Structure formats: structure tokens, C-alpha cells
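Appendix B, example 12.
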Amino acid sequence: MLRFTVLALAFSTALPALGQPPAPAPAAPRFKWEPGKVLAYRVVQSTTVEETVLDEKTEKPVPSTSSTNLTLVRKWTVKDVDKEGVATLEMSISEMKSVIGQPDGTTVTTDSTKPEDAKNMEAFLNKPIVTVRVDSQGKLIEVKDAKTGSAARLQAELPFRLVLPDAMPDAGKSWDRPFGVKIDPPNGTGENYDFTQKYTSKGLKDGYLIVGVETALKAPPKATSEHVPLVPMQWTGDVYFNTVAGKYQASRLTAKAELMNHQGEGTKFVYKSTYAEDAIDK
């Protein structure tokens, strides 16, 4: 009898644990847009291009190296959020410094903190130069205005660098984003190129969802020369999303390639760019 009572008690004690509902799944990561809010980011990008071309007269290989070091602060102002959660955002640049290393070894520096340089930048400094509509997953819904550069480039370089998945992803979970880019003259011939951007969750850490990013062409161009303007779009690295604040926090990306014989036998194009972006939190 005593043994039966002990077993019955143990079984009845276990019942509440067995009957408990499973813990709710973590909320899907989403951007939390707030009208009037300004999202500021500091960008540091360093790019080096090593190119070997053939001299027109001697047809001998001539190597050259150029570089660009760019630091800027860009601000995204949330102008409006519609009932579907799609935000209209305006982007402006409040600070910029560029140091361009030219093939002859000289450098050209432009710095918005210098009055003369700031005057030369007044056409775009502290003024809206890009207006986009982005949904709560980071998808680029529409480019309403792009005063500098190509609107198509924003497909390759999303305003906030990633598209979030439908649900909170487990570590190792992947999802894709296809996109296309048209390269117009003088950089291209008007051809359309299809890319795939693959995202892979690296898990949650201290409230940040870490996402690995890989960007690749679905079908490389037939001519190596046509690949040159596409290299800067093939970003790889990590993006950090603040799941608590509902905002893009940071990214660490690289794009690199070595293209042989891009302008004939003996020529070469080597490209490497690093990109670091961090939210400027008050």
C-alpha cells in the first residue's frame, strides 16, 4: 500500500509539468518604425583597386593602384508609416570625408568640416538625397527619389542591409532574396543581371540577431569586362539587428574579386572594399 501511495504521489506531481503548454516562440524580428524618428549611422568604407592595362603604344602591361577611404554620417528620417507598416524614409548626409589615393601617388582630400569643402558639398549636404519606402521586414518597396547614384543600386545595397525572415530564425536557418540590377552606360551596356542574396542566422546574442550575408550572381557575364561593375555589389559579411529596439544596428561587409584578362591578355583587375556601419545611439 505504501509503495502504491508513493508511486501515485510521484505520478500526480509530474502531471502538472507534463500538462504545461510549450513556451511561446520568440517574436519575429521586425523594424519598429516611428514617424518623426531619425536613425543615424556612421559609415566607414575603404576601397582599393589594382588594375593592369596595356599601354596603347607599346602594348606592355602597365599596373596602377587607386584607393578611396570614405567616412560619413547618414541619417534616415521616418516621414510616415502607412497602415501596412510600410515606412517612407528620407536619407541625408550630415558629414563626409573622403581621401582619394590616385595612381600617381598623390591624394585628394575632401572634408565637410572645412568651410570651403562644405560649400562645394552644399548641393547635397544636409538635404534629402534619397527617398524610399521600406516595410517592417526591411524589404525595399519603392525608390521614390534618388538624386545621386542609381536607384537600381539600392536593390543591391538595401537601405538597412538585410531582409528579415517571416519568423525568428534558429541558428543555421537560411533564407534568400533575389534581385536584379541593370548596368547602364558608361559602366555597362544596359544589360540586366540577376543576383541572389543569401541570409543565414548566426543566432541571438545580447538581444542582437546576427545574420550572415552572401551576395552572388546567378549567372556570371560572358565577357570578363562586364563583370567589373558588378563586383562592388557582391557583399559578404555580417549584419546585426537589434531585436528589442526593432532597428538595424550595424554591419561588417567586404566585396572583393580578382579578374584576369578583363581588357585583353595580360591585363588584371583586383578589387577589395571593406564596409563598416554602426548606429549612432543617443
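The longest strand covers residues 61-81. The helical segments are 2-19, 115-120, 153-156.
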